[in-house]
Amino acid sequence: MNYMLKNTVSKDAFRYKYLLEKIFPYIKPVLGRSILNLIIAIPLGLLDGIVALSLKPYMDYVINGNPEQTWTFMGHTVYIQAWLAAVIPFGIVMFAAFQGVLKYINSYLTTWTGNKISNALKVDLFKKLTNMDTRFYDVNSSGLVLTRFLSDPETASKNVIQMLETFVATIFGLLGLVGVLLYNSWQLAVIGVAVMGIAITPVTFLRKRIKSVSNASMVVGGNMTTNFNETFGGNKIMTAYNLQKTQNRKFETQINEQFNLTMSLTKRAGWMSPIMYTVCSVGIAIVMAFGTHLILSGQLSAGSFMSFVTSLLLLYKPTKTLGNTLTSLQGVFVAMGRVFELFDMNPAITTPKNALALNGLNNSIEFKNVNFEYEKNIPVLKEFNLKVRKNETIALVGNSGGGKSTVVSLLPRFYDIKDGSIEFDGADIRKFDLTSLRNNISFVFQDNFLFTGSIRENILMGNEHASEADIQRVITMAHLDEFISTFESGIDTFVGERGITLSGGQRQRVAIARAMLKDAPVIILDEATSALDNKSEAIVQKALDNLMQNKTVFVIAHRLSTIKNADRIAVINAGELAELGTHDELMNIPDGKYKHLYEMQFKNQELTQLNN
Ligand SMILES: Nc1ncnc2c1ncn2[C@@H]1O[C@H](COP(=O)(O)OP(=O)(O)O)[C@@H](O)[C@H]1O
Ligand SMILES: [Mg+2]
């Protein structure tokens, strides 16, 4: 499964039909209002033409009219000039007011439907993200994913609604105005429309360029976000190594890159408007010359001419809008392509059909001839075999990079193995319901993540239904009370974005309390005490000893006492099980790996411990 997201355009960006089929389910729930919105856009567009149209009678009957001319209307005699002089301006105001009301309804509906669609997309996208495998997070940068998450659904949905609405209003605006043109003089209309046509052709040439710039700035945007995240996450390293300048320079380079992209687009697109204006003015000049001829030869009234020229001038805006809309439509499809590329990614690790429920461990956990690789053809675990009995504590030791963390991360199926099997009581873990499998395993890492919230909330993540008595019990067992009592709000103390207000050892104990509440039968400790100083390590170790009671434990540690107290020790070297046995057994292997490790690493600890 390839989880790597592309930086720019997804392969689907130009499969319009496919994308529309994909987005339709999101439009469907708001379909009624979307259609209403489009229907309202029709009169909204047409009203421009009506104003232009009204100029003809105004000119012909009011300005150039005869005061004596009358109409007979339902038995009444109406003086046309006086009547129209009053009605037309009033009508124009009424129309404008009506257009205003429609515009308001229109923008309300556009915002409503656009946001509904975009929010539904985001909710599903977030669901997708939370269900992706660990691998997805290994291979994609946070900036890239974040940019996709924050901006693409907006572009793909909000803009699409906005655009449809603009499109309909514009098309009907054009139709109305062209209708007025034709009504006044078809000859002039042909000239006018032809010139308009010429004026917008350059827009179509620009589309490719715009797309490539929009992709490039997407990449730069992603890099910026990554840079930003690293400044947060890697803040200490940045400060310790005085990397502020480097980070700033990186950011400046990125922002300059973005500037250049924007300018290159403006350079290419900026002359569009002036050219369009010039071409249009040529058109208007031709129309005027020819129009004068038509008027003088009596084929056109002055009112028609005025109404015509007004329509032509009004035509400029919708024509330009249409050009722009067609151009940004490309961007919408690109965004949709990127959104649905994410949607089409399915986590490879899922609950199988007819899944078994895992309810605790009865006999053993067994790795059978396990082969595993992160990257294709780079084996990490090779023919790995290990059987761990219920309630046994097994220590995994070996050189760094040997595969210890990998072994334990296979148990909750963070990753799936290539071949072989991992079995709980003889059943392959891939047969179990994923949630129930993970409910049976607790993890304590070296650096434990605390969520934004109180200490209580963080502990309750182990088991949200825990009673107050349970909480008190684990707080004591995890040796949390001694430092919690120093806080004013106690267990309800808020821990920051990453729980950074707590020390490493304190955070560790919160994580242990969380694991205790979860009360899973299998416990995995991956270097849980490695980052701690001696004093906190001793406290955390006491907490861990409480956690480990009557559990099946995989412990990866550097602490000799932990390893010595384990029932058995597995030495993992370059992805293979090198040695397996008790401390004494392994020490008796001449030139053994454990013996070597012990002499290199653990002996000093023993001496320190003896001296203390
Ligand atoms: N998420 C990952 N993606 C790719 N390779 C990885 C990943 N995690 C670990 N590795 C590689 O797998 C090997 C074993 O790593 P690991 O299990 O972390 O070793 P240990 O815990 O024994 O130090 C190393 O070569 C490491 O580079
Ligand atoms: Mg490790």
Verbal overview:
By secondary structure, the protein is α/β, with parallel strands linked by helices. Among the domains are: 16-344, ABC transporter type 1, transmembrane domain (ABC transporter transmembrane region fold, Up-down Bundle); 442-519, Rossmann fold. It has 21 helices and 14 strands. The strands form 4 sheets. It has a 6-stranded mixed β-sheet. Strands 4-3-6-7 form a 4-stranded antiparallel β-sheet, with no helix packed on it. The chain is elongated, with a radius of gyration of 37 Å. The protein starts with 15 loop residues before the first helix and ends with a helix. The mean pLDDT is 87. Bound molecules: adenosine-5'-diphosphate and magnesium ion. Magnesium ion is lined by residues 404-405.
Topology of this protein?
Layout (H helix, E strand, L loop, with lengths): L15 H12 L3 H33 L6 E4 L2 E4 H52 L2 H6 L2 H9 L1 H33 L1 H48 L1 H6 L3 H26 L2 H25 L5 H43 L19 E10 L5 E11 L3 E5 L6 H6 L9 E6 L2 E2 L5 H6 L1 E4 L8 E2 H6 L7 H10 L3 H4 L9 E2 L8 H15 L3 E5 L7 H15 L3 E5 L3 H6 L2 E6 L2 E6 L1 H5 L5 H19 L1
Helix pairs in contact: 1-11, 2-3, 2-6, 2-11, 3-6, 5-7, 6-7, 6-11, 7-9, 7-10, 7-11, 10-11, 15-17, 17-18
The protein binds adenosine-5'-diphosphate (ADP) and magnesium ion.
